[in-house]
Amino acid sequence: MTPIAGAVALNLAFGFSILSIICLFIFTLNEDKRLFLTGQRLSLGISFFVFLSTFILWYQLIISNFDIDYVARYTSIETPFIYKISALWAGQSGSLLFWLFILSIFATITVLQNQSKHHGLMPWVIISLSIIQLFFLILTNFVTNPFMPTDADFVVANGNGLNPLLQNVTMAIHPPTLYLGYVGFSVPFAFAISALMNRDTSTLWIQSIRRWTLVAWLFLSSGIILGGWWAYQELGWGGYWAWDPVENASFMPWLTATAFLHSIIIQEKKDMLRIWNMALIILTFTLCIFGTFLTRSGVMSSVHSFTASSLGPIFLIFVFLILIISFSLMYLRKSELRSEKRMESFTSRESGFLFNNLVFVVMCFAVFWGTLFPVISETVRGTKITVGPPFFNQINVPIGLILLALTGVGPLLAWRNTSKQSLIKNFTFPILSGLIAAIIFLFIGFRGSVVISFSLSVFVLATISTEFKRGISARTKKFNESIFKALFAMVSKNRSRYGGYIVHVGIVFMFVGFTGHAFDKEKEFSLTKGQSDHVAGYEFTLLKLSETERPNHYAWISDIRVTDNKGEYVTNLYPEKRIYFHKNPDVNRRQPHSELDIYSTLNKDIYSIFSAVDNENGVVFIKIMVNPLVRWVWIGGYILVIGTMIALWPRKD
Question: Domain limits of the chain?
Answer without folding.
Answer: 1-150+158-167, 169-235+247-339+349-364, 521-632
